[in-house]
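Researcher: Quick one. two chains, 222 residues in total.
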Amino acid sequence: RKEVEQDPGPFNVPEGATVAFNCTYSNSASQSFFWYRQDCRKEPKLLMSVYSSGNEDGRFTAQLNRASQYISLLIRDSKLSDSATYLCVVTNSGYALNFGKGTSLLVTP
Amino acid sequence: DAGVIQSPRHEVTEMGQEVTLRCKPISGHDYLFWYRQTMMRGLELLIYFNNNVPIDDSGMPEDRFSAKMPNASFSTLKIQPSEPRDSAVYFCASSLQGRYGYTFGSGTRLTVV
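Model:
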């Protein structure tokens, strides 16, 4: 079983819709949490960090629930350019990133 | 800043051949990571270095894989001999203090036939 689990999707949503992705992690000692975005045939890029208090960056909101070992990403007012794969990432005691396999999002006109 | 530079971008080789992937991290970054991405397994950590010293190589699949970092500005990942199941995209990433702003290179797409 992979340490970080995500629904692979794909999520097909119309422009302007709100979409939410979820992620669970198995190591209760995980320390840092992130969402990365990966476009087709490109490298992963940091979208945002995730904090226990929840954090927002424009149309994007990330939440962390340590008790349930659950991370979420909410995208409001979806744009065509949001189409990508969203990777849930955690770090443990070391500095290496542990990636989920990603959730695919397709925003349609 | 040129970012993390990987070469080659694409590599097609025959089974049994040696393959060497190269990475130049961002200047000043003290951590360097090698990842492999496949459809089946997603992104997997192979090995990472801190100040040119290998810290964790538990993700290296087997003895056919080796990685070196002779200096702060260069690292190699070598596969010898290569096998078709090694076909994947290999990413190098670097970071400062291992915490913030991991930056990935564009990757090397390896095909072993």
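Chain B touches chain A at residues 31, 33, 35, 41-45, 48, 50, 55-56, 91, 93, 95, 98-99, 101-102, 104-107 (CB under 8 Å).
Researcher: Thanks, that's what I needed.
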